[in-house]
Design brief:
alpha+beta, elongated, 2 domains, single chain, FAD/NAD(P)-binding domain, disordered C terminus, 12 helices, Flavocytochrome C3, Chain A, domain 1
């Protein structure tokens, strides 16, 4: 940030997250902000993960602070971690489904029951004993929360059964009613697609978005995701995002990897764009003129959108994409404290039970800012791991309980219900 002349601080990031989230737990947010640079350096130095030499400012952030890995693909973070886990001989079990968390009479988490799925309709039940603690990191449940027919960026099988298991173990749930809708998605493609990067990196900062019925802007294109998504879903049809060639050049060559002729379209004139999308041409021309005047003054007098320093008035050729919010991530999950310990409904720690990532709630409130998800997962994943590592071994506690669970240690193969 210093090299790019960006003035930022932990406090400013904290304020941005709290403003967008509305109901966040400030202590959890503060930890994400304090440790964000630390986890960035950890990825670079310990795993050799390469980031692009650029900073992005996504909606709701007051300054550019978002670092993107090469190709903007999560696998470029996950794969080096998997390689490290393999080198440490970490036992990663695939096709293994959590079924229950076992606890002592005092509530201490000591083991889990799981099913090793060998075929779609058969599984073997086993018990895995915890040496020190149990960490829940099973992700979100947007596939279930959105409904099977909803537009989504996530997989349909991102479901919430682990939250129900955690609740049976006494865990309190928080913010379960809040589902984040990603406003940079397009109805013209499946999943996240190319529009997510194209809109976030080009249209929202360097262009504008219009209501197809009026040809007018209707929201600050660079505000937080919740505000944008709600404004978009209040329309009767898919809004259209517009940017020009200069806007693409401001982003750089990487933007061309996130363009598709069936989703992002090029037009030599505004009239051609209006005709294709059936927008009122005169109103669209007025919108362009007004927006260009804001760019020249670097002041959006209508919606208060921050105008980037590199932004210039828009001129042909133009590029467009139809946009519509898709179910993206869940804000709710198990309630944790600053040590990543899972809390019960009375606010007390469930001994030796930790959680991190999207399976938790309270960090983002009702709205998560872009780039803060992976950051939060890494920050609290490291906290949970460190806290679990310093726990004493729990063999004695398990020995007291093992007799009641011994029979399910290696049950015979059973038939699973459909689905």
């Amino acid at each position: 940030q210093s090299r790019h002349g960006v003035v930022d601080s932990t406090r400013l990031m904290f304020e941005d997250m709290m403003r967008a989230g509305r109901t966040n737990d400030p202590e959890l947010v503060r930890l994400v902000c304090i440790h964000s640079f630390e986890v960035l350096q950890w990825l670079r130095q310990d795993f050799g993960i390469e980031f692009m030499d650029r900073l992005e400012q996504l909606g709701g952030h007051s300054v550019p602070r978002c670092h993107s890995v090469e190709e903007i693909q999560g696998r470029n973070i996950i794969n080096p971690m998997l390689e490290r886990a393999a080198s440490l001989k970490v036992d990663i079990r695939l096709n293994t489904c959590l079924e229950e968390i076992y606890q002592t009479s005092q509530g201490t988490a000591i083991a889990v029951r799981a099913s090793l799925v060998s075929t779609p309709d058969r599984a073997e039940s086993l018990t895995i004993e915890a040496k020190k603690a149990i960490i829940l990191a099973s992700g979100g449940f947007s596939g279930e929360a959105a409904g099977k027919d909803a537009l989504r960026t996530s997989l349909s099988d991102s479901t919430g059964e682990t939250l129900r298991i955690a609740e049976r173990a006494g865990a309190a749930l928080i913010d379960m009613e809040h589902l984040q809708m990603l406003p940079c998605a397009s109805p013209d493609e499946q999943g996240r697609g190319v529009a997510a990067v194209f809109a976030s990196y080009a249209i929202f900062p360097y262009g504008f978005m219009v209501n197809p019925a009026t040809g007018k802007r209707f929201v600050n294109e660079w505000t937080d995701r919740k505000t944008r998504a709600e404004a978009m879903m209040a329309l009767e049809n898919f809004p259209v995002g517009i940017v020009d060639q200069q806007g693409l050049e401001n982003v750089g060559e990487m933007i061309h990897e996130h363009m598709d002729d069936t989703v992002t379209r090029r037009f030599d004139s505004l009239a051609a764009l209006a005709d294709y999308h059936q927008l009122p041409e005169k109103a669209l021309e007025e919108t362009l003129q007004t927006y260009n005047s804001y760019v020249e003054k670097h002041l959006d007098e209508e919606f208060g959108k921050p105008i980037p320093a590199k932004a210039k008035p828009l001129n042909p050729p133009f590029y467009s994409v139809r946009l519509w919010p898709k179910a993206h991530s869940t804000m709710g999950g198990v309630r944790i404290n600053p040590q990543a310990a899972v809390l019960d409904k009375a606010g007390k720690v469930i001994p030796r039970f930790y959680a991190a990532g999207e399976v938790t709630g309270g960090i983002h409130g009702v709205c998560r800012l872009g780039c803060c998800a992976i950051t939060e997962c890494l920050v609290f994943g490291r906290i949970a791991g460190r806290q679990a590592a310093i726990e004493d071994d729990i063999h004695e506690e398990w020995d007291e309980q093992i007799s009641s669970h011994q029979e399910i240690k290696f049950q015979a193969v059973e038939t699973l219900p459909p689905g």
